[in-house]
Design brief:
755 residues; alpha+beta; seven-stranded mixed β-barrel; five-stranded mixed sheet; 43 strands
Length: 755
């Protein structure tokens, strides 16, 4: 027979209400469906056990708290349940996502130990809704920064602990549709942490990675999203959620290269094989350094094995941001061997970019950390520092004319677009604006002053401003012996406006007229790209000689003087503003319609009460009409609308409307208006009720068979009232339902569809 048989786990308890943000104390209850069992709970972030509090009745919490609960059966053959956990934020306000981490010995890790504790990870979006909750392991993240008071950690989810295997949410919606993350880095700005390091801005690493992504550099970056971290319910400051690149989940999602397909090499003081083998890499390295790269056949072989633009981008970015902590540290490169996947050529990733823009220790012994450093300074880094020979690869490949021209033109392309001050400074302002509202409390926790941090941010801006102004002349200083001349100013036009775009070498102009600077002594390539529905006609080039001809979509030229160049297109459809706008308002909604013309993709509608300083509500639709719900009674609204086309957006069109006031027309006794939306509904359901006078409203939600799935009585005052059904609707299966509102002996029914 079988002895000591272990049964199923005890049923998991259910904590109520929902985890999230509350403006007042919260009464917490814990439901249990396991017979002959005891519920134990904690409020300090620790894992509950049989020595913890025994749950007997609801209890009240008055400050931010992590509540955890577990069920122990009286049957010794029934293992304890998995843990339920909710973080309740009391009177906390934040403008960026919030991560609550908790665990009994997790503070030991955050305070500098080297343990790998288990704990919980809860993610709340900017609206305060919990969008991810998993359990897993934590470990240290950082090296020099591990000596700071605020430390970074890595999180690895583990489904064997009873929860999902991953954070199932689009953490980085602006860059990726990926919505499964088993690993998340919580980085505290590392060596740019404020206030730990003199001159720190708490943004450098995130800024460089973000810039590289926007510029579409041929590398893999740690995608960034700022957040606030709470540790066992205690505020822990401004952090960064970062996507882990050296992770098979990352390479599999983006390139269809799983762990068994990877050759992944990393250097941090020494070099090791993270995955796979380095044998082929060193064979390629030896081939490049022992053969003539000016030979077209040799170079063609290298191009088949190495993503040469990735090496070029790696050199350009670190020269431009004057990195002083790379090559001998923070360097990694990889390839995939799955023939059906991407990234089959060796390519580089970005690692820590804190020691940039004149900041922190010069670990790589670069010749100059100032904003006026020559862009070719990396080529002077000695082999005892660059012991893996990445600079040697670059300089040997530069003997090939195609490689050298690509390098110079790529640098110019970036300087004329994403590395320009017109792009870099607004981007920095945007990132700073996201964390600025949170920095005063961060500083209250960790020290420093707001003015001190702002001064450090300004120093970073000043460095970037200087770098932008000297870089073109620096390229001439570096490479005039190789025949590079100029720089020459180009004005690149598109006629008629918004009818197309121009690609210069590797980058498309961001706006037109495009004020650009390029170099002579090597060919540049311009490509005309018509807007959908249009066609390229011809080029106008005022000064320089070009070929093959003015009717070719792709032309090349070697600049000898400044020039103005125009790409002419025809048949392009302009992106016109919405017109003939109208509105049919009710008390709490308004249906707005309009006409539009052109190559229309969608329409953006912004609205808010007239004269209000509150944020705009924004809707996007592909239709020419939309119903706006949740409006205030008897209120004038201002509307701004624009058309979004394939290559451009229109100017805003403006419109005003006023919602109806309470009048004698009634839906039923005492109810002047009723709106149920959205319909169909996939998540929350909103019910707007406008009352002639205060009353008790009976709300019912019924299935198609007439069975109650929800009902409640609401005591409502005169005017507009909104009921939001969240969990009650989200747990319903798809299908047809009825919402019935009753008051003073009369009822009205609305039909809804649950997606």
């Amino acid at each position: 027979g079988n002895f000591n048989v272990i049964g199923e786990y005890a049923s998991k308890p259910a904590i109520a209400p929902l985890a999230g943000f509350y403006t007042d104390e919260v009464e917490v209850s814990i439901a249990n469906t396991e017979p002959n069992a005891t519920v134990y709970y904690t409020t300090d972030g620790g894992e509950p056990d049989q020595g913890s509090n025994i749950y007997t009745e609801p209890f009240t919490i008055t400050s931010t708290t992590v509540v955890k609960a577990v069920v122990y059966s009286n049957d010794s053959n029934t293992p304890k349940s998995f843990t339920d956990y909710h973080t309740f934020f009391i009177n906390e306000e934040h403008t960026i996502p919030v991560v609550s981490v908790s665990g009994r010995i997790l503070p030991d890790l955050f305070n500098g130990s080297y343990i790998d504790p288990v704990g919980t990870f809860e993610l709340f979006d900017e609206t305060g809704d919990r969008v991810g909750d998993v359990m897993g392991e934590f470990n240290k993240h950082g090296n020099d920064s591990w000596a700071y008071d605020q430390r970074g950690v890595d999180f690895i989810s583990r489904d064997q602990m009873g929860d999902d295997y991953a954070v199932k949410y689009k953490i980085y919606p602006h860059f990726s549709d990926r919505n499964r993350f088993q690993r998340v880095i919580l980085k505290a700005a590392a060596n740019d942490n404020y206030p730990e390091v003199n001159g720190s801005a708490h943004i450098r690493d995130a800024y460089v990675h973000h810039l590289s992504q926007l510029a579409n550099l041929e590398m893999d970056e740690r995608t960034y999203e700022p957040c606030i971290v709470y540790l066992n319910g205690e505020y822990w400051g401004v952090y960064e959620m970062r996507e882990k690149v050296d992770d098979p989940d990352y390479t599999d999602y983006y390139y269809n290269q799983d762990e068994e397909d990877l050759d992944f090499i990393k250097t941090w003081g020494g070099t090791w094989q993270e995955y796979g083998s380095w044998d082929d890499w060193y064979d390629l390295h030896d081939f490049i350094t022992s053969n003539d790269m000016a030979d077209p056949d040799n170079y063609a072989y290298v191009e088949s094995q190495l993503e040469v633009l990735s090496l070029i981008d790696y050199m350009i970015l670190h020269a431009h941001n004057v990195s002083s902590d790379w090559l001998n540290w923070n360097t990694a490169w990889w390839r995939g061997r799955n023939p059906d996947g991407g990234a089959q050529k060796w390519r580089y990733i970005l690692w820590d970019e804190d020691a940039t823009f004149g900041h922190y220790i010069n670990y790589t012994n670069i010749p100059d950390q100032s904003a006026t450093a020559d862009p070719c300074n990396p080529e002077e880094i000695s082999s005892w520092v660059d012991f893996e020979g990445h600079v040697e690869l670059f300089t040997d490949l530069a003997a090939n004319e195609d490689f050298f021209n690509l390098y110079i033109n790529r640098y110019a392309d970036m300087n004329n677009s994403y590395f320009s001050c017109d792009f870099m400074i607004p981007l920095l302002d945007t990132l700073i604006a996201r964390i600025a509202p949170e920095m005063p409390r961060h500083i209250q926790k960790w020290g420093g002053t707001v003015s001190g941090w702002e001064n450090n941010v300004q120093q970073l801006k000043d460095f970037i401003e200087t770098r932008c102004t000297v870089i073109d002349e620096g390229i001439i200083d570096c490479y005039e012996d190789e025949g590079v001349t100029g720089p020459f100013e180009l004005i690149i036009n598109v006629e008629p406006p918004m009818s197309g775009q121009v690609k210069a070498n590797t980058v498309i102009g961001l706006e037109y007229p495009w004020q650009a600077t390029y170099f002579g002594g090597l060919p540049i390539e311009l490509t005309a790209i018509p807007q959908d529905g249009g066609a390229f006609l011809y080029w106008t080039v005022n000064n320089n000689v070009y070929g093959p001809g003015q009717f070719s979509e792709i032309i090349t030229m070697e600049l000898t003087e400044h020039d103005e160049i125009t790409a002419h297109f025809t048949g392009a459809i302009p992106c016109g503003s919405p017109f003939e706008i109208g509105a049919e308002p009710t008390m709490t909604s308004a249906t707005v319609d309009w006409l539009s013309a052109g190559d229309v993709l969608s329409h953006e509608i912004k609205y808010r009460p007239m004269g209000s300083s509150q944020d705009w509500e924004v809707e996007v639709t592909q239709d020419n009409a939309i119903t706006l719900y949740g409006l205030d009674v008897c209120t004038e609204y201002e509307v701004e609308m624009r058309t979004i086309c394939s290559f451009s957006v229109s100017e805003y069109a403006y419109y005003n409307f006023t919602t109806e006031c309470v009048n004698s027309t009634e839906v039923i006794n005492g109810v002047a208006e009723l709106q149920v939306y959205p319909n169909p509904s996939s998540e929350d359901l909103f019910i707007d009720i406008v009352l002639d006078e205060s009353s008790d409203i009976f709300l019912e939600v019924l299935s198609l068979s007439g069975q109650h799935v929800y009902r409640n009585v609401y005591n409502m005052p005169y005017g507009k009232n909104t009921i939001r059904l969240e969990q009650e609707v989200q747990q319903l299966p798809s299908g047809l339902y009825f919402v019935r509102i009753s008051n003073n002996g009369e009822s009205v029914v609305r039909r809804i569809v649950r997606d």
